[in-house]
Amino acid sequence: MGKNVIIVGGVAGGATAAARLRRLDEQANIILFERGEYISFANCGLPYYIGKTIKKRDELLVQTPESMNSRFNIDVRTNSEVIRVDTVNRKVTVRSENKGFYEESYDSLILSPGAKALKPPIPGIDSDRILTLRNIPDMDSIKALADSKETKSAAVIGGGFIGVEMAENLAQIGLKVSLVEAAPHILASFDSDMVTIVEKELLKNDIELLLGDGVKAFEEKENSVDITLSSGRKLNADLVILAIGVAPDKAFLKDSGITLGARGHIIVNEKMQTNAPDVYAVGDAIEVKDFVTGHNTAVPLAGPANKQGRIAANNIAGIASSYKGTQGTSILKVFEMTAASTGSNERTLQQLNIPYKAVHIHTASHASYYPGALPMTLKLIFNEEGKVLGAQGIGYGGVDKRIDVVATVIRLNGTVNDLTELELSYAPPYSSAKDPVNILGFVAQNVLSGKSHMVTWDEVAKMDKQDYILLDVRTNAEFEHGHVEGAINIPVDNLRERLDELDRSKKIIGYCRVGLRGYVADRILTQNGFTFYNIIGGYQSASILGVKTERSGISKKHVEINPDTQTGK
Fold first, then answer.
1. What positions carry a catalytic annotation?
2. Under 8 Å CB-to-CB from 60, ≥6 apart: which residues?
3. Which of 104, 147, 189, 232 is surrounded by the most beta carbons within 10 Å?
4. Which residues on neighbouring strands pair with residue 157, listed in sequence order?
5. Rounded to two decimals, what is the model's pTM?
6. 181-209: per-residue pLDDT in tens?
7. How far apart are CA 287 and CA 277, in angstroms?
8. Structural domain boundaries in the chain
């Protein structure tokens, strides 16, 4: 008779562990307990069924109890909640709809309880019209209310990935949607200078954005909910989606002796082992190492959970395996736009006092002369030694493969030099001879070697205007069409013959459209004795960040998007 292995929870971590363990050990007695009815479903696909992109509900069910049993001989027990773990006597207590309370013994135990949606004690939060999205029953409840003829509007509370996905999908089925986020910006994995692009996409698609404003109270009306924000502003919605984050589902571990972290996550080592003998844990409920910084963190993503489930099964079966950490690679569809990130962002590195440098490029998804090239903004974060620490990308095509390439370089502890040397597939419909990933590497190399002197619009805003000259090195026509307030114009092609028009006693702060001509200007002026700084991302970044602009000979008239509030003015 083989060993008894109990798995608590299915979906990405638990179901993966069960299937892997069976493939490695045909004799093991494997029991998988799932509190709900569904053991393995595509939780990342739930918003898209609500939004009717995914038409058939059954397509979200990856494995059923019957299919797991017939293919892998797994004893799947749904509607069975593990309510206690006794690590001394190696047994769990189960509460089942059919059997009542009973105990099962284990030789090895894998905990994959996942996380539950945060529901803070806000007045009125228990309304039946305020819903969360974590599983199939949640999805069914939201869809039933969203599809009701009486439902015309929705408020999404929380601007994380689930919140943004829900806002998009509810808008696509015709609801008037407001998105409320207590932080200054949505999508915490992106830096402010990047995420404003996504916020503009939401605004363009008629999503009302309310940033820097949390919820103070809910009040249920006859067929809707009144929402009072911290600012005093009031909203009314027929449906409210609460998406403010998740917390590890760990109540059943009380008195188990299993060590938990500061925020309640299960502590594991690189083999996914807890401090209790033969007890492993995987998925959203565990604390992991940040692959880039080495600090403890928690990252609720399906990809890492799958890998962790496999590693736990390997170790139980006697195959030494270890988890090296999570780098948080993630991607998001926002209407026609794609936003992706990997590794650390500036905010995290600043909080941890880790020195870094950053560069941006605005480029095209493939060769610009081939029809259909689409704009893309990429950001690379690296340290003084050139080690790649993180990247973010936003655009309409090709973003996914660029961030995936950088994610691979990070996982292999690569540097900006590696980015320049990568030989990536090229043909005009797919890329350029110098792929955007290569260009990121080139720009970063120039910064590290001192050949490029970069500055951000944020940094320029803090400078004394008396100390510098703002130089626009684009063409006269581009300048006249629109330029940053206070700039003078000397096209880069005329720069050498017009050097005497610039004051050598002042810093020259220059910009072009995206940064390339600014770099050429940097090389010309620096070698001619000027102190020059090229503004990262150029005029395109200025437009994204809401820097004041004007037109030559025309009174200033523009729409500025304030990056702190995201309200048009």
1. 44
2. 41, 42, 45, 46, 49, 54, 136, 139
3. 189
4. 180, 242
5. 0.90
6. 999 999 999 999 999 999 999 999 999 99
7. 18
8. 4-116+247-316, 130-244, 336-448, 454-550
